[in-house]
């Protein structure tokens, strides 16, 4: 009788390896993490990881794709594609905060990368694509007369995400604040400040 298939021999799969890698990346930073660190966290020999992935950078790619796919997916949802621009912007802000809370480790890894590897540069470019899409919604809301016209659209977008992205640094899952609470507070601060007067 031959060896059982890998799936039967292994108590983990590629998704599990990525889950653990993301946890270690958030604790030690991507650059400060080795495959040996990830193997230790999994409780396996380093060589076992290579049955699932080719490299640490592949683990990073899988991790940031989870976050980027979720964020870009928001832009195709009905709430982001129909209605007034200001309604669409509110929807995107709310959903972005929900994704940050639901996928906190992956989004944290995404926001901490600095462009040192091809995967990091690719992820940063995709993040900028998302920002530009939101900037177009901001511009449409200004054109429709719902937001003030005296603030640059790129600056508005950066400030929105500067505020919402900070969630990754202090939010504690299971704490007293829900994703909805945070989205509501962020929306109030953003939209009261951006509302066109008179």
Task: Please give a structural write-up.
- By secondary structure, this protein is mostly helical.
- The protein has 2 domains: 6-53, Arc Repressor Mutant, subunit A (Orthogonal Bundle), CATH 1.10.10; 60-194, Orthogonal Bundle (Tetracycline Repressor, domain 2), CATH 1.10.357.10.
- Helices cover 71% and strands 0% of the residues.
- It is built from 12 helices and no strands.
Mean pLDDT: 89
Element order: H for helix, E for strand:
HHHHHHHHHHHH
Compute the separation of the termini in Å: 81 Å
Number of helices: 12
CATH homology superfamily name of the largest domain: Tetracycline Repressor, domain 2
User: Low-confidence runs (pLDDT<50, min 5 residues)?
Assistant: 1-10
Number of domains: 2
CATH architecture of the largest domain: Orthogonal Bundle
For the report, how would you describe the main beta sheet?
none
Percent in helix: over 70%
Class of secondary structure makeup: mainly alpha
Query: What's the CATH C level of the largest domain?
Result: Mainly Alpha
CATH topology of the largest domain: Tetracycline Repressor, domain 2
Gross morphology is elongated
How much strand?
A: under 5%
Number of strands: 0
* Rg measurement, Å: 20 Å
Short description:
By secondary structure, this protein is mainly α. Helices cover 71% and strands 0% of the residues.
Topology summary:
Elements: H1 6-9, H2 14-28, H3 35-42, H4 46-49, H5 56-74, H6 78-81, H7 85-102, H8 104-112, H9 118-143, H10 153-165, H11 167-170, H12 179-194
Helix pairs in contact: 2-3, 2-5, 2-8, 5-7, 5-8, 5-9, 7-8, 7-9, 7-12, 9-10
């Amino acid at each position: 009788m031959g060896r059982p298939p890998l799936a039967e021999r292994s108590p983990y799969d590629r998704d599990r390896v990525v889950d653990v890698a993301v946890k270690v990346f958030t604790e030690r930073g991507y650059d400060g993490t080795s495959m040996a660190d990830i193997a230790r966290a999994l409780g396996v020999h380093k060589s076992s990881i290579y049955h699932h992935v080719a490299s640490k950078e592949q683990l990073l790619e899988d991790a940031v794709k989870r976050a980027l796919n979720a964020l870009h997916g928001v832009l195709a949802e009905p709430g982001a594609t129909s209605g007034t621009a200001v309604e669409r912007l509110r929807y995107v802000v709310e959903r972005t905060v929900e994704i940050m809370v639901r996928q906190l480790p992956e989004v944290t890894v995404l926001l901490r990368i600095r462009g040192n590897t091809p995967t990091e540069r690719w992820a940063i470019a995709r993040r900028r694509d998302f920002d530009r899409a939101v900037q177009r919604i901001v511009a449409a809301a200004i054109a429709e007369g719902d937001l003030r016209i005296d603030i640059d659209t790129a600056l508005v977008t950066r400030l929105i995400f500067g505020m919402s992205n900070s969630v990754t640094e202090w939010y504690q899952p299971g704490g007293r604040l829900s994703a909805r609470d945070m989205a509501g507070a962020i929306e109030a601060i953003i939209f009261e400040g951006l509302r066109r007067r008179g």
